[in-house]
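Action item from last week, closing it out:
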Amino acid sequence: MSPTRAARAAADAQSRPRVEGEREQEIFDATIDILAELGYDRLTMDAVAGRAKASKATLYRRWNGKAQLVIDALTSTKEPMTAPDTGDLREDLLGAFCGMGGLTDQRQIAIFGSVVTAITRDAEFAEAFRRGVVGPKKAIATEMFRRAQERGELRDDLDLELISSALPGIVLHHTFLLGEPPTNQLIAKVVDQLILPAVIRG
């Protein structure tokens, strides 16, 4: 986004009345539900308004369109994400990527699949998605590898930014391209057979 457009967007956001508290969360929840069920392309402000029992005018006073609403809904978290810190890289990786919010969370996978087309077609949406959704998750993975390296578990010559993308990249490839469900067993196999052998100090 250009500086001029960014400034204009910020000014627009400041000028709009803010929907706050539980009402805001209800709108976010409705947005995420529809996104997971129908996908980004079929999500409309009308549908969100109906699901959240809000007027469309209320939505447009706060958000200028569905892209901004979806990004705000995806980046709104009740609790900040933190990296597991068990003292063991394997356990940290399994703790972060298995279960709720991880790669085996069917809702999260459905949401990711629903925005893939928007990421490829809408540069501003893609930038916001990478910054607000992908960025924090990648930072958690990088932090786990950094701590393991500081403990002496890992080789010193690793590119931590690169290796932190390997596990989700492999699992999502299996999920979306090969049709293999993202199970705890798959994640453990990738960790044990690919990630750890590639990074552990010999």
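Closing note: The chain has eleven helices and no strands.
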